[in-house]
Design a protein that fits this description.
522 residues; alpha/beta; 5-stranded parallel β-sheet; 16% strand; globular; binds flavin-adenine dinucleotide
């Protein structure tokens, strides 16, 4: 792997090696840019992943302190874990599940579609589905998504058969085992899945797409990217011309270094990205970098979520096969007759026994709880994933009373459910129960949200520099050579799982950066 000097001022520095950062880095090196990628976590090769949930969690997760505040249930159940994100090369996508629906046209125009929603900061995106469609296609090809571009669907497992059968019986018409970003058959030099059920522990086989098996090795192979692991960015520095000119980062021993830079892109996911911008406050940017709008950290979204478990007389073995290869689309439309704006998906979910017992009824105990645990092999699961309303007061701030190992303030995530979220979740729980009862469930359990895997909105996209942090290409309004390359830029959250859209947006951003740089505008 190439090594760049730290005082080399011509490199682009990409912070974070998840889907956002690695997608950008690969496009830039393919266009001849020289890239230094800083990743806070270690490089763990796929063969070192451990097929044991607890060990894998410790191996891959961002465990530095965080706080959850607000009236959301999560702040009560898991006050120290607002989100579940990765700290490892490949990011959270080393243990994501892989459902990849696209956003819908009305969701990019949420304000126009839903009208004013009091108590929300709903807005339209400065990007349309039409503009993003070619990039969606490229992202699907990069991931090798099932059901797309001639690739076969994922075979159904028992958990899916329960979901699909129940969906059909309650009148739903649009459900399938994907699109799902795991190889059904060999693709892009990686094998088809063994469907052994291990996925959220990291996939040893490499069948599941993640940047660790795709973008990162490809970028390094060009000879133009250096990946620095255990390198946590703690400050983006500015030159006297107001442009980003470097990134200060801590190595695994806590020693600080500075990499000079011509372009900086932040892709730390929607909690660490605003945290870094806020930590980078400096003269002239006292409230944080790129924060003249005051929007950095605000409008945090994490989707309306919850789990419904159906218990049956016969065995289901939900944990066999791909854990999330199933999606029901019928409720994803905008239909205010249901009592809320926006829509939601019902997605298949399977959890290992440790997660099942932790999240089914947080703090659960006693005979009813244990009888549910005993019914584990006879249980099917579905996960609700719906559009939550952005609110300015739902936000990531720095908590100076909670310091990390480097002595830096930790992120505090404040979230209050919007009444629209509450109405949507209530509807989804009822539909989930109806679905499982329709195929003979003897008991249904409604489980609350887990620490958020989908984190969005904290560096909002808007063409209006007073209303957002970045423009339609993820370029910060305040610092022309500083970009945000992850779900922080989402103006609204839509109902779909976010990663395909993160990649599509970043592919479009990469084209923009290349054009701007070549024309001398950057
Ligand atoms: C269990 C689970 C299942 C999921 N399933 C799905 C799914 O089915 N479909 C879907 O669309 N999405 C899913 N997601 C969400 C998906 O994983 C994320 O949307 C995606 O990984 C976000 O990509 P990212 O690049 O923005 O951030 P990440 O993947 O989180 O990567 C960010 C990287 O940046 C690094 N970093 C952060 N701060 C710094 C810093 N200051 N310096 C250096 N490095 C830093 C982190 O260590 C991390 O490696 C799931 C998430 C979880 C937890």
């Amino acid at each position: 792997m190439i090594r760049y000097e730290r005082d080399d001022a011509d490199v682009a520095v990409v912070i974070g090696s998840g889907p956002g950062g690695s997608t950008l880095a690969l496009q830039l090196v393919r266009e001849g840019f020289r890239v230094v990628m800083l990743e806070a976590g270690p490089w763990i090769p796929n063969e070192d992943f451990v097929n044991d949930e607890r060990i894998a969690f410790d191996q891959l997760t961002w465990k530095d302190p965080r706080r959850a505040t607000g009236t959301w249930q999560l702040a009560k159940d898991f006050p120290g874990s607002p989100a579940w994100t990765g700290k490892v090369v490949g990011g959270t996508a080393t243990f994501w599940t892989g459902l990849t629906p696209r956003f819908k046209s009305h969701e990019f125009e949420a304000h126009r579609s839903y009208g004013e929603v009091p108590g929300s900061s709903i807005a339209d995106w400065p990007v349309t589905l039409e503009e993003l469609s070619p990039y969606y296609e490229r992202a699907e090809r990069a991931m090798g998504t099932s059901h797309r571009h001639g690739r076969p669907p994922m075979p159904a497992n028992n958990n899916y058969k329960v979901l699909a059968n129940g969906a059909q019986r309650i009148g739903y018409e649009h459900f399938a085992t994907g699109p799902y970003a795991t190889n059904v058959e060999e693709y892009d030099g990686r094998p088809g899945t063994l469907r052994d059920g291990f996925c959220q522990q990291g996939d040893k086989s490499t069948a599941k797409w993640s940047p660790l098996v795709s973008e990162i090795p490809k970028a390094i192979a060009t000879g133009l990217m250096e990946l620095r692991t255990n390198a946590q960015a703690v400050q983006i520095t500015l030159g006297s011309d107001g442009r980003a000119d470097g990134v200060v980062y801590a190595d695994e021993n806590g020693a600080l270094h500075r990499q000079r830079a011509a372009i900086v892109a932040v892709a730390g996911n929607a909690i660490e990205t605003p945290r870094l911008l806020l930590l980078s406050a400096t003269a002239g940017h006292e409230d944080g970098l790129a924060n003249s709008s005051g929007q950095v950290g605000r409008n945090y979204m994490r989707h309306v979520t919850g789990v419904v478990y159906g218990e049956f007389e016969n065995e289901v073995h939900m944990y066999r096969g791909e854990p999330m290869a199933g999606i029901v689309n019928d409720e994803s439309r905008h239909d205010p007759r249901r009592g809320f704006s926006g829509g939601y998906y019902l997605e298949m979910i399977a959890q290992g026994l440790p997660s099942f017992t932790t999240f089914m009824t947080p703090g659960g105990w006693g005979p009813e709880f244990t009888s549910k645990v005993e019914a584990y092999t006879r249980t099917a699961g579905l996960w609700i994933c719906g559009e939550d309303m952005p609110r300015e007061t739902n936000r990531v701030t720095l908590d100076g009373s909670l310091l990390d190992r480097l002595g830096l303030p930790s992120p505090s995530v404040h979230y209050d459910d919007h009444p629209n979220d509450v109405a949507m979740l209530d509807h989804a729980y009822r539909q989930g129960e109806k679905l499982f009862r329709a195929v003979g469930a003897t008991r249904v359990t409604k489980a609350p949200a887990m620490p958020s895997g989908h984190n969005m909105g904290t560096a909002r996209m808007s063409e209006d520099a007073a209303a957002g942090v970045v423009n339609g290409f993820g370029q910060t309004h305040d610092v022309p050579n500083l970009f945000v390359s992850d779900g922080s830029v989402f103006t609204t959250g839509a109902a779909a799982n976010p990663t395909l859209t993160i990649m599509a947006i970043v592919l479009r951003q990469a084209d923009y950066i290349v054009r701007q740089a070549r024309s001398g505008a950057l």
